[in-house]
Each structure stands twice: as C-alpha cells, then as structure tokens.
Amino acid sequence: MPGAVARTSTFALNNATLPFVLALANKGYRKALVDDPHLRNGLNVYRGRLTHEAVARDLGMVYSPALDVLA
Q1: Are residues 35 and 48 in the same domain?
Q2: Can you say whether residue 39 is alpha, beta or left, with left for phi > 0 and alpha for psi between -120 and 50 degrees?
Q3: Whole-angstrom Cα distance, residue 46 to residue 32?
Q4: Are residues 30 and 56 in the same domain?
Q5: pTM here?
Q6: C-alpha distance from residue 24 to each of 6, 7, 19, 65, 67 (Å)
Q7: What residues make up the domain containing 24?
Q8: Which tens digit of pLDDT belongs to each residue from 19-57?
Q9: Is 33:66 a contact under the CB 8 Å cutoff?
Q10: Do 51 and 22 have their domain in common?
Q11: Per DSSP, what are the bridge partners of residue 45?
Q12: Is the distance from CB of 57 to CB of 63 less than 8 angstroms?
C-alpha cells in the first residue's frame, strides 16, 4: 500500500520518526531512552544485557529492565 502513495507515505514515516531522531540528537541516546518509554520499548539489548522481556524469555536468557541497565 505505501508504494501506491510513495510521497505521502514518506512524509508520514518522516513525521513519525523525526521526534525520536531529534530527542536522540538533542539529549543523547541514554537520556532520550530514559525520558521516553516509547523509544525505550524499541531497545532489545544494552551492553550485552537483554532489555526486552519476550526476547529474553524466548532465548532462555536473563531479562534486565531497560531502566535498570541505563541507570
């Protein structure tokens, strides 16, 4: 479907992702992740620790909450 309206879908994607890019650029990755739960939900691994519960469970590994490892 996006291919049918390439220009519009490109604008939509840019509008959806730009706030995250600006937060990362202005705050740095660590503060941006701590401040924004939506951005943090996209974090799967940080410094070798699994921060996504479902991924850790499926791999039989230890889950570490993102806020704990970012602190």
Answers
A1: no
A2: alpha
A3: 14
A4: no
A5: 0.80
A6: 26, 25, 9, 20, 16
A7: 1-40
A8: 999 999 999 999 999 999 999 999 999 999 999 999 999
A9: yes
A10: no
A11: 50
A12: yes
